[in-house]
Design goal:
2 domains, mainly alpha, 14 helices
Length: 333
């Protein structure tokens, strides 16, 4: 029997004969699957599965096979995930792979790890962004991408050489990008999704303000030290901060608000005039607790006395209602 640890850098296309079996394993993940179960779910004989056992071992957690009585459980490293994902791509089934339990688990881990890193290293991020925000953005992006993949004309890529395959991939990426706005628009018909998207914009606005303020102090520390007193230093800092905020607000309006508004209008979504303003959907409640209600406010300021009193909770904001789309949620594991 071939050593399961070999062929680590082999061409992922070698796994094409395993797509039938991998389709079962990615859906059953993280539950181990016996060869008999795999045979039954794949609708093939046990002998047929056994013939592919060595190749299946290459993408499975071999160290656990003995304790699991030779059950199969896919490795949870990103090199293996990339191999399997590419295999499904060249078999024109990438959307199915992305929606699978296996891919969703890997994506969730990456997103939550990134969220934890940003919370630790980016000034102000943890004050405004929750895990739900990171997962919401990821769910929406996954839905838009898989919708686009479903709309692409499937090209038989199994026999395409590497040069032509590269051209096909580039062409499909271009076509996929063309589908982003139309696919994004359809989710904005759900008011909660639309407002959560705008809440993300507002949170980016607040985080950026914190980064700007701390960055100005650090960048101009040497110059500020030459000023005669604190009042002069505060005045200079305020000028720099307000100037930076002006251009930041202009950038967000043109690159974010305008595009979301145009996308919402194409599907006749309920776009309220107040949505134009930064901070109109989400303004943080100033409280010693990390969690708290979201409130509506028409002002761009974070000052406590300008906070409105109407709560706007973000629970349940997800993709459009009635659509079966992947949802990456919290895991206790």
């Amino acid at each position: 029997m071939e050593n399961p640890t070999t062929a680590q850098h082999s061409d992922p296309s070698q796994y094409l004969p395993l797509v039938r079996y991998l389709s079962v394993l990615i859906e059953r993940y993280p539950h181990p699957t016996t060869l008999k179960q795999l045979s039954k779910s794949s609708k093939v004989s046990l002998a047929a599965v056994s013939k592919q056992r060595d190749k299946l071992f290459q993408v499975c957690d071999v160290t656990r096979l003995a304790s699991l009585r030779r059950s199969l459980l896919l490795k949870n490293d990103f090199e293996t995930a990339a191999k399997i994902g590419f295999t499904f791509y060249i078999d024109s089934k990438l959307g199915r792979f992305i929606r699978s339990s296996y891919a969703q688990t890997m994506i969730r881990k990456s997103v939550l790890d990134a969220h934890a890193t940003l919370s630790e290293k980016l000034a102000g991020y943890a004050k405004f962004f929750e895990q739900d925000d990171a997962l919401f953005v990821t769910n929406l992006a996954v839905s838009i991408i898989t919708d686009g993949l479903d709309q692409l004309q499937h090209v038989k890529m199994i026999d395409i050489d590497s040069d032509n395959l590269r051209a096909v991939i580039i062409n499909e990426i271009v076509l996929l990008i063309d589908q982003v706005v139309p696919n994004f628009s359809q989710y904005l018909t759900d008011q909660r999704t639309l407002e959560h998207v705008l809440a993300i914009r507002d949170k980016l606005w607040y985080v950026a303000q914190e980064v700007i303020r701390s960055g100005v102090v650090q960048a101009f520390a040497q110059f500020l030290a030459t000023l005669p007193d604190d009042s002069a230093r505060k005045a200079y800092i305020e000028v720099y901060v307000q100037t930076s905020n002006f251009y930041l607000a202009k950038f967000l309006d043109e690159s974010f608000t305008k595009r979301v508004r145009d996308a919402a209008h194409t599907v006749h979504a309920n776009w309220k005039p107040t949505y134009e303003e930064l901070g109109s959907v989400y303004t943080p409640v100033i409280t010693p607790k990390r969690t708290g209600p979201y409130v509506l406010a028409a002002s761009k300021s974070i000052d406590e006395e300008q906070l409105a009193t109407r709560e706007l909770t973000e629970k349940g904001r997800r993709d459009s209602k009635g659509r079966e789309v992947p949802r990456i949620e919290h895991s206790s594991n």
